[in-house]
From TrEMBL:
SUPFAM superfamilies: ATPase domain of HSP90 chaperone/DNA topoisomerase II/histidine kinase, HAMP domain-like, Homodimeric domain of signal transducing histidine kinase
Taxonomy of the source species: Bacteria, Bacillati, Bacillota, Clostridia, Eubacteriales
Record has Magnesium as a keyword: no
Protein known as: histidine kinase
The HAMP domain, residue ranges: 196-248
Compartment list: Cell membrane
Swiss-Prot/TrEMBL keywords: ATP-binding, Cell membrane, Kinase, Membrane, Nucleotide-binding, Phosphoprotein, Transferase, Transmembrane, Transmembrane helix, Two-component regulatory system
């Protein structure tokens, strides 16, 4: 799930879940409070509590055993009536056996007609702000009067308001605490889950950065999530792979540079040593005849020419390597280009002991975008390589040209000794030669095939080598079009 969607759902849940839980729990708490406070408020509000008082007096009369003295039941009924604001007086044959009346209560009773109080009837009386409940019964020939009085009804109402206020404050306080706890708990759980989903990929990225810093590029970013971090981790892993390839290429480049320096040093030192030797021979008078002096001069000149050719190739190689070589690309008919090249090359290489056989199955109207001069250099380098390593007085080279989809495939195969399979991958490396000891510099500089590879790649093509009863070099070049130039000529 995307982080944006996850944040939206998390925010909604942070509002909805606490709201539902708070309402549900608040309802349950309300039922409990109503159960407790409802009875009190109902008693206080039910005809000023007279019904409740009547029930309490009846219960008291049934449980009371001795009507001549105070007992524990008096204290119980006293506490019950006080809850609703009533005081009590109990008389037996007009003799008081219990009373907790206040002066105000006594004053209120004195205002009630005496015949009403002395009668044997049970009465409920409310006058002005006075509520009076009388319960009279006869037991063991004794008249028991129980009078419960509340002198100030307004005080009872205030008491009810206080109860309601206490109920509201207590209820709201508990609901507030519960709501706060639910909100904190819900937000904590959702935030921790969201934070975990963010911290895990961040830790993975931090681990990856640490591994790269330590030089380890062989780890993998195994992130299984399907959010924005999935693409970030995938891109990070691609960067790691490309960095690993870059480091590998850099190491290879450094190795090639070392070989290049060694090759240059060796291939320059050999002719220089020869030149120094023959010059010293001339100075020391070793060449004592004109014929010998002329031979020495010819050798020195030829070695200097070899060095000059090597320097030219190094200069060309350096420009190709840095990408600063000025190619002159033009669209040409490929068959015409090849016929022109082999018309000159057949006689030239036959004098060097190489017979060329040319076979072309492509149409004459195929156009290709090349630098003709540099492509000539590629073909000459390959054929020169076949000349150097031929094992017979006359070597054979078969050149075939075919079309494959949008490309031209040019294969140049000789009947020489080929190359060891493990050395095929190094054939296009600068200064590589089959002669590992480099004891025969006349065989070449080792730059020919390397230069050829640079030129072919600059043309958007590929060049490969394989053993096929000799060495076969295959060049693939993209086709630029057909008929265009011929139509223009018409």
């Amino acid at each position: 799930m995307m982080i944006k969607k996850r944040l939206f759902i998390s925010n909604i849940l942070m509002l909805v879940v606490p709201a539902i839980l708070i309402v549900a729990i608040a309802g349950g708490v309300l039922e409990g409070f109503v159960e407790i406070y409802g009875k009190k408020i109902k008693v206080l509000d039910d005809n000023n509590g007279t019904y409740y008082v009547q029930k309490a007096l009846n219960s008291y009369s049934k449980n009371l055993k001795d009507y001549n003295k105070q007992n524990q039941e008096d204290r119980k009924i006293e506490e019950v009536l006080k809850e609703v604001g009533y005081n009590l007086i109990i008389t037996s044959n007009e003799e008081t056996i219990f009373s907790n009346l206040t002066d105000e209560d006594k004053n209120s009773i004195s205002k009630v007609k005496s015949d009403m109080l002395s009668s044997s009837d049970s009465i409920v009386l409310e006058v002005n702000s006075v509520c009076l409940v009388k319960n009279t019964f006869i037991k063991d020939d004794k008249t028991i009067n129980m009078i419960a009085i509340r002198s100030n009804v307004l005080m009872g109402r205030e008491h009810m308001k206080a109860e309601v206020k206490a109920f509201f404050v207590s209820y709201m306080g508990i609901v507030f605490v519960i709501a706060l706890f639910i909100i904190v708990l819900t937000n904590g759980i959702l935030s921790s889950r969201l934070a975990k989903s963010l911290i895990e990929p961040l830790d993975l990225l931090s681990y990856g950065a640490g591994q790269i810093e330590e030089g380890n590029l062989d780890f993998k970013m195994n992130y299984k999530g399907k959010d924005e971090f999935s693409k970030v981790c995938a891109d990070f892993d691609k960067m790691r792979i490309r960095l690993k390839e870059s480091v590998k290429m850099q190491l290879k480049y450094e190795e090639n540079r070392k070989e290049l320096v060694v090759g240059i040093s060796h291939d320059l030192r050999t002719p220089l040593t020869t030149i120094k030797g023959y010059v010293k021979g001339l100075k020391d008078g070793v060449a004592s005849t004109p014929e010998k002096c002329e031979r020495y001069h010819d050798i020195i000149y030829n070695k200097a020419c070899d060095m000059d050719m090597l320097v030219d190739k190094l200069f060309l190689f350096s420009k190709l390597d840095t990408g600063k070589f000025p190619f002159n690309f033009q669209k040409v008919y490929f068959n015409e280009f090849l016929r022109s090249f082999f018309k000159r090359a057949i006689d030239e290489f036959e004098r060097k002991g190489l017979k060329l056989f040319y076979e072309n199955s492509c149409n004459d109207d195929i156009l290709i975008n090349i630098d003709s001069e540099e492509m000539n250099r590629v073909l000459v380098n390959i054929l020169e390589n076949s000349v150097k390593y031929k094992v017979k007085d006359y070597g054979n080279v078969n050149v075939t040209v075919n079309k494959q989809e949008d490309s031209i495939v040019l294969r140049i195969k000789d009947d020489g000794p080929g190359v060891l399979e493990e050395n095929l991958s190094r054939l296009f490396v600068s200064f590589y030669r089959g002669d590992a000891a480099r004891t025969n510099p006349s065989e070449g500089s080792g730059l020919g095939l390397s230069i050829s590879e640079y030129i072919v790649k600059a043309h958007g093509g590929t060049i490969t080598a394989e053993n096929m009863d000799g060495l076969a070099i295959t060049i693939t070049l993209p086709i630029s079009g057909q008929h265009e130039m011929r139509e223009e000529n018409i």
